[in-house]
Specification:
Blueprint: H1 2-17, H2 19-38, H3 43-67, H4 73-95
């Protein structure tokens, strides 16, 4: 429980410090969800929207770390892998 509280405090401090960046990410996510639901009958369009959001997420993460001067190859690989996994999992859900 103590670790969870420390994590929440750190997360809150991080969001307050970079409020604009996180609002941009949240806005992008909400926009993605709306577009995704508008095209619920068209799986090809949903995949395209999903791909665009993953690209947006990767770019957002890289820019965020670049501005923080914490951008390293490890972080680039991490964002690409998280995006690829999300794309794969959500595409798998779309098929069924």
């Amino acid at each position: 429980m103590i670790i969870f509280n420390k994590f929440l405090k750190h997360l809150l401090k991080e969001v307050q410090k970079h409020i604009f960046q996180y609002l941009l990410l949240l806005t992008g996510a909400i926009f993605f969800i709306l577009l995704f639901s508008l095209f619920k009958e068209n799986h090809h369009a949903q995949f395209s929207i999903l791909t665009l959001f993953v690209i947006f997420y990767i770019c957002w993460g890289l820019i965020h770390h670049f501005l923080e001067k914490t951008l390293h190859l490890k972080i680039v690989i991490e964002y690409i892998l998280i995006g690829a996994i999300a794309l794969f999992l959500l595409q798998t859900l779309l098929i069924h």
